[in-house]
Amino acid sequence: MYNSLGLQDCFNYIGMEVYLFHDYSMLIVLFILVGVMLSVLVILGSGNYMVKGYRSSEFLELTWTVVPGFLLMSLGVPSLFLMYYMEGAVKYDLTVKAVGHQWYWSYEIGDYGTGIEFDSYMVGLDDLVSGDYRLLNVDNSLVLPYLTKIRVLVGSGDVLHAWALPSMGIKADACPGRLNVLSLGVCRPGSMYGQCSEICGVNHSFMPIHVEWVSWEDFLMNHAA
Q: CB–CB of 153/97 below 8 Å?
């Protein structure tokens, strides 16, 4: 949503988990900030700015060891869960390969060398029509079926790029000579936009990503044509 201070509305389960983890992390940061500010106010209000001596306290040492450890564990466990969850299952219904170039994306849909291939360029200002998004519309959108386990292989043909869809809470670096794996899947039809999220040259801002989610019937008809 434009002019919004929050994150985009999530489109899948991974995105919802990522956004919940973000809110939880911000809550912990706020908790620490409030604790530090209260400690500063207590010290300033007491007027005792100089340390006159030290006293040992086993309870205090236990507290400032256990509490930070618990907070780190509460951040680490869901973070690891999300990293493994983003890679998805072992079995997939469809494989898509996204390769970044300067400055466009090329896609391959299919397995074992079978399927279709096409390039996706940003639509110029002269070709935009009413309702299109400037710097986000492309000439060939990536059309995928919803309610499907999809594996996305992300790579690059020249320099570093990044294939990112903020409304799904995912981002994968496109590295030359290497394939990174993403898992996609949504439960309803729709349309989402993204952009290259790695500075890749003078036209870095002109590498949009557009994914359309349709039914299997429409997907087969679209690629049969």
A: yes
pLDDT in tens, 2-14: 556 777 778 788 8
CA distance 167 to 106: 21
Please tell me whether residue 127 adopts helix, strand or coil conformation: helix
Sheet containing 208-214: give its strands across: 142-145, 208-214, 190-195
> Which token pair is 191?
């349309």
Tokens standing for residue 139: 């000439």
Token readout for 190 is: 């729709």
What tens digit of pLDDT does each residue of 47-83 get?
776 767 777 778 888 888 898 899 899 999 988 888 8
Calpha distance 165→184 (Å, rounded): 10
Regarding pTM above 0.85, the answer is no
Task: Domains for the chain: give ranges and CATH numbers.
Answer: 13-86 (no CATH), 94-223 (2.60.40.420)
Report strand pairing: 104-109 vs 180-184: unpaired
Dist. CA 148–CA 151, nearest whole Å: 10
The one-letter amino acid code at 202 reads V
Sequence-distant (≥ 6) Cβ neighbours of residue 13 within 8 angstroms: 185
How many Å apart are CA 211 and CA 98, to the nearest integer?
Answer: 12
